[in-house]
From TrEMBL:
<keyword id="KW-0805">Transcription regulation</keyword>
<dbReference type="GO" id="GO:0003700">
    <property type="term" value="F:DNA-binding transcription factor activity"/>
</dbReference>
<feature type="domain" description="Transcriptional regulator LacI/GalR-like sensor">
    <location>
        <begin position="15"/>
        <end position="125"/>
    </location>
</feature>
<dbReference type="Pfam" id="PF13377">
    <property type="entry name" value="Peripla_BP_3"/>
</dbReference>
<protein>
    <recommendedName>
        <fullName>Transcriptional regulator LacI/GalR-like sensor domain-containing protein</fullName>
    </recommendedName>
</protein>
<dbReference type="InterPro" id="IPR028082">
    <property type="entry name" value="Peripla_BP_I"/>
</dbReference>
<keyword id="KW-0804">Transcription</keyword>
<dbReference type="InterPro" id="IPR046335">
    <property type="entry name" value="LacI/GalR-like_sensor"/>
</dbReference>
<keyword id="KW-0238">DNA-binding</keyword>
<dbReference type="GO" id="GO:0000976">
    <property type="term" value="F:transcription cis-regulatory region binding"/>
</dbReference>
Amino acid sequence: MRLPRDPSLVRWGDFDADGGYLHGRELLSRPDRPTAIFAGSDYQALGVMRAARELGLRIPEDLSVVGYDNLSISRWFDPAITTVNQPLREMAALATQMLLTLSDGGVPASTRVELGTELVVRSSTAPPATP
């Protein structure tokens, strides 16, 4: 299923809870408010969740929230945050290898590396309610 892109729904800001709260309030105050928000970090997701609660929305019944980073604390939030886990150890190892190659005067095999991520489904997401 392909969703249409709507640039008016994209927000740029700090990856902290304050940024999530600020932009979450903006998005959730729209007359055509979204049924889901994908935050750029688990901390942003926490801010979005607070904004939603202050506006009387229930998570996940009225709004699904997804974070990014799979911070260990994200499973302790209420509800626990669905999040994206990235392979940090593998990222660090590859970056270190590239830096060592460069410091030895070499050229890395590639300057672009794509690594897989994993969606960790918890209780902050659900199918949208039917009107």
